[in-house]
Every structure is written in C-alpha cells, then in structure tokens.
Amino acid sequence: METRSITAEIPMVPRMAEDPAELVPELAEVSAALFKVTGNGSVPRSTISLVQLRAGQIAGSTYLTVLHTGFLRRAGQSEERIASVASWWDSPYFTGAERAALALVEAVLQPSADGERVSDALYAEVAGHYEPKALATLVFAIGQVNFFTAVALVAKPVPGRSFTDPWK
Q1: 158, 12 in Cβ contact below 8 A?
Q2: pLDDT of 141-166, one tens digit each?
Q3: CA-to-CA distance for 161 and 168, rounded, in angstroms?
Q4: C-alpha to C-alpha distance for 51 and 144, rounded to whole angstroms
Q5: Predicted structure pTM score
C-alpha cells in the first residue's frame, strides 16, 4: 500500500469523481429518515452536533469535522465549546448531559482494552441524563454519523463544501 508523505499537499477534489448519492438515489430516502429521527427534538440539536463532531474527530475525517464544526458555529455555539470537543473530559464548557453523550460516542467508536465498549456504568450514567426516547435518539445520532463516516472516509468529499453538494 502506498503511503503519502505527511508534508504532501492534499488535493481539494473528492476521491470519488461521482457523488455516491447520485449513483445510489435510494440513499436520499434513508438520509432523510435519519435526519428526521435525530431531529425529533428529544435531544438538543447542539448535543447531536457535538456528538457528531466528536465522531468525525475520532474517525479522522476532515470532511465530517469541518461539517459539524460549521453546524455548531451556525447554531451560535462558542468557539471555546467547539474547539474543546476534542478534549471535552477536562473542558468546563459542557453540561453533564453533554459529557455523558460525548463519553458514549467515544465508547462506541473506540476499542476497549476491557472488551465491552459501553459498560453498564456508562449506560447508567447516560440514562441518568436522558429519558428513554432521548437516549434512543442519541444512539441513532451516533449510528447516523457512522453511516456517513464510511462515505466520508472512502469517497473523501471536499471539506468545507455544503453537505448537500460536496462533489461540485
């Protein structure tokens, strides 16, 4: 496998020449359903975006990191909150509920030396902050970003372009 020098410039073109959503138009229905589920109002939109930003950081996706940073900025979130998502555990900018959500996304996305990623203790902590519908919505928000992580890592849409048109 060919590796690129860490000092090499990254081209501002997507890896896949064609938009996967245009190649598989059925994706629009799935995508719309996922956005409807995560936007059901049981979890603040800012919390969903914080979780999805952290997922993009963990996955190493510049596209997702820039996308969710932009969502948070447009929603009026402070630069301190946005910048400290990567180090949320020692940041004073998050509520207990947001910390629980960020801990959950990290547990789901990162391997655990102990085997089980989401411990009973973590589940209890998160469930203490979220009613059942909100907890399910939070889980689906993690699943939603993971669904699109594969596209972001394989197809490499251009960071900073609209999520509705990253191929143009």
Answers
A1: yes
A2: 999 999 988 888 888 888 877 655 66
A3: 8
A4: 11
A5: 0.88
